[in-house]
Amino acid sequence: MMSKECLVMFVLFTATKSTLIKISDQVVHEVSEKFLSFTVDDTVFYPSIRWGAFNFSSPRLLTLIAGLSPAIWRIGGSPADWVVFNVEQDKLNMSAAHKTTPIAMTKHDWDNLVRLSVKANLRLLFDLDLQLRLGSHWGLSNTVELFDYCVSQGYGFNLDWELGNEPNAYHRPDQAQLTPDQIGNDFVSLVHLVRSYSAFQNSSVVGPDVVGVDGEAADIIKGFLKEAGQYTKAVTVHHYYFRGDIAKWTEYINLTHFGNLKPYLKTAKDIIRNSSYPQMALWLGETDDAWHSGTANVSDRYVSGFLWLDKLGVSAQSGVDVVIRQTFWGHNYGMINDSMLPNPDYWLSLLYRRLVGRLVLDVVTEHSPVTTRVYAHCASHRYYKPGAVTLFMLNVATKNSDKIIINQQFGDGKMDVYLMTPGNEDGLLSQEVSLNGHILKMVDDHTLPELKPVQKDIDEGIILPPTTYLFVVLPSAKLSVCK
Ligand SMILES: *[C@@H]1O[C@H](CO)[C@@H](O)[C@H](O)[C@H]1NC(C)=O
Ligand SMILES: *[C@@H]1O[C@H](CO)[C@@H](O)[C@H](O)[C@H]1NC(C)=O
Ligand SMILES: *[C@@H]1O[C@H](CO)[C@@H](O)[C@H](O)[C@H]1NC(C)=O
Ligand SMILES: *[C@@H]1O[C@H](CO)[C@@H](O)[C@H](O)[C@H]1NC(C)=O
Ligand SMILES: *[C@@H]1O[C@H](CO)[C@@H](O)[C@H](O)[C@H]1NC(C)=O
Ligand SMILES: *[C@@H]1O[C@H](CO)[C@@H](O)[C@H](O)[C@H]1NC(C)=O
Ligand SMILES: *[C@@H]1O[C@H](CO)[C@@H](O)[C@H](O)[C@H]1NC(C)=O
Predict the structure, then answer these.
(1) Which SUPFAM superfamilies match (predicted)?
(2) Domains of the chain: total
(3) In the predicted model, what is the mean pLDDT of residues 108-113?
(4) Cα of 444 vs its chain's centroid, Å
């Protein structure tokens, strides 16, 4: 059944453009099953924050975070390089090895993190402090203390490790300056340490979490690969389109940003291909639309979804295995808010998780306006039969709708449409989001809603109203590569 709101929408915006698309029966990349992952920034350890509204005992939080599993939950960010495990805050200043005022992660913090990640079926990726130095080397004694504590508590099977955050930006006078080779060697020390614990026999090490892919950042990636490439699972780079705290909401649909990611990822891939480990995976290790905590009352609204969904599309197309969204909770760009309730990007991510599978397909478009962007994957087998195809697309044109015509015959000619629109009169700045005209809400603290499509004929074409995004599944496509 098509809802009334939805009907109104289709009638109001008669298509003025139309795009022809053809889905090629060829897999361009296979992403990780944990492709869509997320962070919590370790500013939560600051004495002034101490987790704030993040409520570890909230059943709603568990439902929401588990809703995105399997995924990687990364604890990292700039303060990673001054987080110290199990030292009383008032003694921290005494740490001779550390050049800046450290912040403490307590045993209780760690217990909460590990227990929630296990309950929610997540891997916990913890970013260790690379600024803890012992002479010219990484000082690993605090990590030994953390690892020993893990063993004493039976933790380990879902833990992975990183070392340092954005080491190409260690330019403050209170930060140790590190050469690319030194960073690579410090990763080797970490890998040897991890391997000396049987509890971590399945743990991975990834890095070097640079922001940028040229200059110093490129040199650090090369140093990391040269020294530690043999032992590590992925190269992690960070990416943001623009600075958030001074941005206007219109930046979030400014077309100039959408083209930036592809060349960035190509350069990262080229650096890896040119190394001795050309097959090494590439992850976006920390990423969102806008850096500097996103934009207040914008990054947690419907409008944030355009660049986020596009990033998921471009990354998969570009051969990225994992995209770690900054943040699940915290700052302006949290997927859930301080009431432990979903923001629009949570719903968008949930829908993505349910509909989009691991195999990435090529889509050829014709007569497409630059404001329309279309991606295709095999559908997730969790909800659809093998052979099904999922398309997702967005339209950043503010006035024109687009009509997407699939230039192929597929199965019984039916498609499932999942149109996401702003949930209230705040429009693009709505904190609520509707799916096919119905506002998305949790059923109760333990239950996420069913995400229901509207069934239509493929022949009708897919109407993509101005400034909206949507998913379409072709359930009976029977595409051979998707079987
Ligand atoms: C955290 O969640 C629990 C369980 O719902 C609730 O009892 C408690 O009041 C919450 N704490 C805060 C600070 O909101
Ligand atoms: C803490 O560190 C600051 C800056 O290095 C220093 O001035 C101060 O004396 C230290 N305090 C203690 C108690 O060590
Ligand atoms: C590592 O993974 C294997 C295979 O899944 C499992 O049997 C083993 O118990 C795991 N080891 C640890 C220490 O988690
Ligand atoms: C989009 O961004 C570009 C580059 O920052 C800027 O020149 C242009 O004015 C922006 N367009 C709009 C409509 O804001
Ligand atoms: C990769 O190697 C090629 C051939 O040496 C070189 O032209 C290219 O600039 C390198 N790319 C990167 C990103 O280092
Ligand atoms: C964001 O919205 C809140 C609540 O409406 C308001 O108190 C706050 O001042 C707004 N912040 C900015 C930067 O607009
Ligand atoms: C969280 O989002 C819900 C739904 O949009 C809203 O009702 C609630 O006020 C928000 N809470 C906070 C603290 O922003």
Answers:
(1) (Trans)glycosidases
(2) 2
(3) 98
(4) 26
pLDDT band per the 50, 70, 90 thresholds, residue 142:
very high
End position of a domain, from candidates 306, 341, 376: 341
Same domain, 330 and 425: no
What is the domain range of residue 229?
31-341
| CB 53 less than 6 A from any atom of ligand 1 | no
How many angstroms is it from 249 CA to the middle of ligand 4? 12
For a pocket test of ligand 2, which of 87, 93, 98, 99 has the largest count of ligand atoms closer than 8 A to its C-beta?
93
CATH number of 115's domain = 3.20.20.80
Q: What is the CATH number of the domain that holds 452?
A: 2.60.40.1180
Instruction: Provide the 10 A C-beta neighbour count for residue 118.
Output: 15
Other beta carbons less than 10 A from residue 58's beta carbon: 16
Which ligand 2 atom is nearest residue 94's CA?
14
**Residue 417 CA: distances (Å) to CA of 17, 460, 472:** 19, 12, 5
Q: Where are the alpha helices (DSSP H) in 321-366?
A: 344-355
Residues 175 and 305 in one domain: yes
Helices (H) and strands (E) in the chain, counts: 10, 25
Ligand number, closest to the Cα atom of 430: 7
> Which is the closest atom of ligand 6 to the Cα of 297?
1
Q: Strand, helix or coil at 419?
A: strand
Catalytic annotation, residues: 166, 286
* 337 shares its domain with 215: yes
Note if the bond before 466 is cis, omega within 30 degrees: no
| pLDDT tens sequence across 261-301 | 999 999 999 999 999 999 999 999 999 999 999 999 999 99
Q: How many CB atoms lie within 10 A of CB 90?
A: 9
Cβ of 199 closer than 6 Å to ligand 3, yes or no, is: yes
Give the span between the Cα atoms of 360 and 414, in whole angstroms.
21
